[in-house]
Amino acid sequence: MFYRLLLFLIFIVFLGCGSDRADRDSIDSDRDGLSDRAEAVLGTSATNDDSDGDGIKDFDEANSDSDGDGINDALESILEDSDHDGVVDQFDSDNSDPTNDSDGDGVSNQHEILAGTNPLDSSDTPDVIHDRDNDNLPDGIDPNDNNSDSDGDGILDGADADVNGDGINDNGIDSDGDGINNSSDADVDGDGVIDNGVDSDGDGINNSSDLDDDNDGLLDIDDFNSTNPDSDGDGILDGVDADVDGDGINDNGIDSDGDGINDSSDADVNGDGIVDNGVDSDGDGINNSSDLDDDNDGLLDINDFNSTNPDSDGDGILDGVDADINGDGINDNGSDSDGDGITNRADADVDGDGVIDNGADNDGDGVNDEYDLDDDNDGIVDTQERALDSDGDGIDDSLESNIIDSDGDGVTNQLDSEDSNPNNDSDGDGQANRVELTCGDIGNPLDANKRCPWAIEGSQAEALKEAGFIYVPGGFDVDGDGTLEKGFWVSAYQARGSGRVISVKDMIAIVGNYRAFITDNFNVVNSNEPISIYRDGYLTDTTKGEEVTFKYDMATSSKRLSSLAPYQIMVSLKHYRGVESAVTLMSQKQYAQIALLLKADLDNMGDGTYLRNGLIEEDFNIPRDYYSKIYEFDTQHKEFLKDLMWLKDKSENSKFSLEHVQSWWGVDIDRLYYNYPTYGANSDLDVGIGRGATKDNYAVIVRAGSILDLLQGTTGGESDSSNRTNGIGFRGATNYLP
User: Fold this and answer.
1) How confident is the model at residue 129 (pLDDT cuts 50, 70, 90)?
2) How many Å separate Cα 98 from the centre of its chain?
3) How many helices (H) and strands (E) does the chain have?
4) pLDDT score recorded for residue 23
5) Using CA atoms, how far apart are residues 75 and 69, in angstroms rounded to an integer?
6) How many whole angstroms separate alpha carbon 612 and alpha carbon 625?
7) In a domain? residue 486
């Protein structure tokens, strides 16, 4: 009995469970004919009998997929058009892509809506062959066949995501919201990096969609050189160029004033300096209606929200390269990695480490040349200078400033064929640019008819030449101190006597204090100590002096003068009236300068007697082809110089060593003559030190080619023997010219 009761109870429980399961399967909360369990599987709402809100109950749509996208119709509204392509979601296989083609006729849903055709009827297809306004949007789709920019937003219809400007994209997707549809957008994601084809002109539209790849204002279909905005290199963009190919025949409109800009684009048609054809905001000569960049900021007007202000936010950075154009603190024109305000693509130093890492920056303004509108920063845009080479140096004017003068020669870089050489000759008149700046208005480095007088011209120079002097070229470093020596004048021959004497009285008067006279007229080369051994007073014993001449007629008809001691020579030179210029003895450096020039003459197939400009370096104060001949300058003709060598002190201690003979003197040590071991030099007159072969503590330097003679003091001397030149002569010289 117990077991029979247990079985009955189990049966009752079983019956109860089965009934509960059946109840649950039949629950339909929204009473739409679909159980909650079924709606869970379908994805429809169990509490809303019309999940997509299109007025049709889920039960009636659940088993249909009208557009074959794998989503049942109960979830795709017959009323809603999510992508605004004219096809409701239930019949649109891609509700997020307005460019899909629901009827498979080859024209996107979007375009069919623009065209007014049925995007669900493949037999109703618009004309996609003709394009009357050349905007890259076929006439059958274009809402305005006669206007290439139907909504006037600056973007041609073919690349415009919203052609009619109603705020709803009707011509493709625009991921970055720049107004350019993705298929035409060179930078789809708007990060400042080109990621969709090539954009030759940087207008944001890739070449495949761009009707004007070089942005010269001339459509590619009319442009024989669509990758060069200035085909003839005249600085005028092809679109406004009257003569595009530069053959001298206008092929792009009339040019009334001959300025190269066709009349329709010319702001000043008649060329009278007054704008008479529209507005020219940037003053480039092209009216705004034809100008692609009205404010010349590098940002094309189609992308420029403020096309009449080149620096919209006033931060000093032109809009075209400004990372934050409107200055709101949010970059709207590409990334700016180093925070300098310049967008990365235009930044010459992207990471801001002081090293150029993104193209060249000719003018150092931080903007690389690719994006810099004025690469040389001279205030003239590159388009007006590119392909011009005013100075013929092979560098475009756009890279050479018309303001900066790098070498300070008075000629701006744009007109200077050698920007780092102030000694070049821009006007071809034979005179270096920098020299032409030294004489005021007389010289002009850009005017071949205006130059400064040469050092060998003028009244003083003529007087020196008449008196028998020649110019010695400089321009090179004689003594190795890093300074280029100037030129000077020297007599071509050694001195001749004029036959007129200088009286003893005059000799004493001219000399005055002997120690002061020697100190003032001679230079000690191996010591800075003052001269103290000579008489501190007037001469008490002297012979007469002699007036001298250096004229050619006397030099060629009489023997050189070799009978005067150095102090007498100085008196003769001070008494000399042949020229206004001060004349003295040559210095050791001047002698070495002449010796180097003569060696250069010999090394260049000369006879070693000519002083020629330019064989060592060029002296820019005289013509390049200048030369002169010097005589009696060799080992057979000794001559006094105005330099002294200190040989010994008052206590007879030696003050001279071979180290005092500098290598640049050009002395043959085997031909160095001095009194050893007593030192001292010859004194023929007692000037406070007595007389004798070694009485003078100083030797006057005597040179003859590579010979160095230190045997004669300030009162010593050596006359020529009969029919010989074994004595010591001298020649007159000026100091170095300034």
Assistant:
1) confident
2) 51
3) 11, 14
4) 57
5) 11
6) 7
7) yes
Phi, psi of 499, rounded to the nearest 5 degrees: 95, -5
Q: Which of 605, 629, 653 is the last residue of a domain?
A: 629
DSSP string, 677-710: TT--EEESS-SSS--EEEEESEEEEEEETTEEE-
pLDDT mean across residues, the chain: 88
Residue 279 host element (H or E): none
* Residue 59 domain-assigned (yes or no): yes
For residues 126 and 159, is the Cβ–Cβ distance under 8 A? no
Q: Are residues 483 and 539 in the same domain?
A: yes
Angle in degrees, 0-180, between the axes of helices 514-521 and 566-575, rounded to the nearest 10: 80
Classify 566 as helix, strand or coil: helix
Q: What is the pLDDT of residue 396?
A: 87
The angle, 0 to 180 degrees and rounded to 10, between the axes of the packed helices 566-575 and 504-511 is 90
**572 and 598 both lie in a single domain:** yes
- Report pLDDT digits (tens) over 438-494: 999 999 999 999 999 999 999 999 999 999 999 999 999 999 999 999 999 999 999
- Domain containing 45 equals 2-75
- Count of the separate structural domains present in the chain: 3
Domain end (from 51, 75, 99):
75
**Residues 654 and 646 sit within 8 Å (Cβ to Cβ):** no
Residues 560 and 611 in one domain: yes
- Which of 276-280, 433-437, 587-591 is predicted with the least confidence, judged by mean pLDDT? 276-280
- 545 and 588 together in one domain: yes
pLDDT digits (tens, 9 = 90+) for 225-272: 888 888 888 878 888 988 888 898 998 999 899 888 998 998 998 999
114 phi and psi, to 5 degrees?
-60, -40
> If you write DSSP's letter for every residue of 167-223 in order, what string do you get?
SS--SS--TTSSSB-TTTBSSTT-SSS--SS--TT-SSB-TTT-SSTT-SSS-GGG-
Cα–Cα distance, 663 to 479 (Å, whole number): 9
Q: Is residue 280 part of a domain?
A: no
Whether residues 485 and 560 share a domain: the answer is yes
**In this structure, is residue 243 part of a structural domain?**
no
Predicted TM-score of the model (pTM): 0.62
* Confidence label for 138 from pLDDT (cuts 50, 70 and 90): confident
Which residue type is seen at 281?
S
3-state secondary structure of 552: helix
Same domain, 646 and 721: yes
Let me know whether 480 and 532 are in one domain: yes
Record the tokens describing residue 504, joined without a space: 């003893």
CA angle 285, 289, 291 (to 5 degrees): 50
Contacts of 533 by beta carbon, 8 Å cutoff, 6+ apart:
650, 688, 689, 697, 698
Same domain, 526 and 620: yes
